[in-house]
Design a protein that fits this description.
The protein has helices at 2-17, 19-33, 41-52, 58-73, 83-97, 123-136, 153-164, 177-190, 208-224, 242-254, 273-281, 302-310; strands spanning 111-116, 141-146, 167-169, 195-200, 231-237, 259-263, 285-289, 297-299. The chain starts with a helix and ends with a helix. An eight-stranded mixed beta sheet has the order 3-2-4-1-5-6-7-8, sandwiched between helices. By secondary structure, it is α/β, with parallel strands linked by helices. The protein folds into two domains: 2-97, Four Helix Bundle (Hemerythrin (Met), subunit A) (Up-down Bundle), CATH 1.20.120; 111-303, 3-Layer(aba) Sandwich (Rossmann fold). The chain binds guanosine-5'-triphosphate and magnesium ion. Guanosine-5'-triphosphate is lined by residues 117, 119-125, 147, 150, 153, 202, 263-264, 266, 289-292, 296.
């Protein structure tokens, strides 16, 4: 019962969070089709315009429009008031392909998660939220403070660690991030910890030496535990819209990214960016963040997302 209330609470929050995106996309489409019976060329052009300005990304809009036009041409879709439903299912179709929750296998212990991303996207907060989810599922979790660059980063992770109840492995400010990661892995192995999550400093995707630093962390870890890190999560901030997609492209080129967390879906009109991320990158969206509190992170669920986006 409690879990259900929690799920409902999150859905409500997701809906509230997506309300600006809802206004920017769904509302405008409803206004467009209101009182119109047929789907004219002009209506389709206007629809395309709304979609283009809604942060879905040009490629995604083209895919969706092609599907709609194909159905209109074949006379499968004739009523203007059915457009929203078709669009909703089109978006669901794109999102569902990449709905792959993170499964922690029992035979990889510790399961190592490396967290990367641009400055301020929500990495450290997301780590605490993920740790909290894993702990609720009964896993033991350890954190590694491998953001040795920003002065307050180690303290920030330690405070979260205390709150969630996980051990935090740290070195001094300015230490080599890969040395912290290495020590944390050793410690997690000896303590037979289920999951190790590594925090890293925010970095610009355009700076090659910083991307090399991530590769070094990955290399050192994999040398110690073949196959690790098992997951490299890129944390993206939804409020940055299309920029989040270019960040993801460059991170993906520089290093292996196996999962995405999209944060700050609360209070942005750019939530549509998740569709573009799924369509253009083909990397699963593992979690979404809708607030600053510890329980404001949920496994990404495509059905919930489109329902929250389209429901009035
Ligand atoms: N509204 C909202 N705020 C969030 C969310 N996730 C994180 N934040 C906030 O974003 C700010 C930055 O979060 P951090 O976790 O410190 O981000 P970071 O990526 O670790 O930052 P650096 O380590 O400096 O690169 C904080 O104020 C968080 O509370 C979210 O889902 N919604
Ligand atoms: Mg941080």
């Amino acid at each position: 019962m409690e879990a259900k209330t929690g799920t409902f609470g999150f859905f409500k929050k997701l809906k509230e969070g997506l309300s600006k995106t809802h206004q920017a996309v769904t509302r405008r489409i409803e206004e467009l089709t209101l009182g119109k019976r047929e789907i004219s060329r002009e209506l389709l052009d206007n629809l395309e315009e709304i979609l283009i300005t809604s942060d879905l990304g040009a490629a995604t809009v083209e895919t969706l429009m092609q599907k709609i036009k194909w159905r209109v041409d074949r006379k499968e879709l004739q009523d203007a008031d059915k457009l929203t439903e078709v669009l909703k299912e089109g978006i669901y179709g794109i999102l569902a392909v990449h709905e792959k929750p993170l499964v922690i296998p029992a035979d990889k212990k510790p399961y190592v998660i490396l967290t990367v991303g641009v400055n301020g996207t929500g990495k450290t907060t997301t780590i605490a939220k993920m740790a909290n989810i894993f702990k609720t599922k009964g896993h033991t979790v350890m954190l590694a403070a491998a953001d040795t660059f920003r002065a307050a980063a180690i303290d920030q992770l330690e405070i979260w660690g205390e709150r969630v109840g996980c051990r935090v492995i740290k070195h001094k400010h300015g230490a080599d991030p890969s040395a912290v990661a290495f020590d944390a892995l050793k410690s997690a192995q000896s303590k037979k910890c289920d999951i190790l999550i590594i925090d890293t400093a925010g970095r610009l995707h355009t700076k090659a030496p910083l991307m090399d630093e991530i590769k070094k962390v990955q290399r050192i870890i994999s040398r110690e535990m073949p196959g690790a890190p098992h997951e490299t999560i890129l944390v993206l901030d939804a409020t940055t819209g299309q920029n989040a997609i270019s960040q993801a492209k460059l991170f993906k080129e520089a290093t292996e990214i196996t999962g995405i967390v999209l944060t700050k879906l609360d209070g942005t009109a750019k939530g549509g960016v998740i569709v573009g991320i799924s369509e253009t990158l083909g990397i699963p969206v593992r979690f979404i963040g809708v607030g600053e509190q510890i329980d404001d992170l949920r496994e990404f669920n495509a059905r919930d997302f489109v329902d929250a986006l389209f429901e009035d």
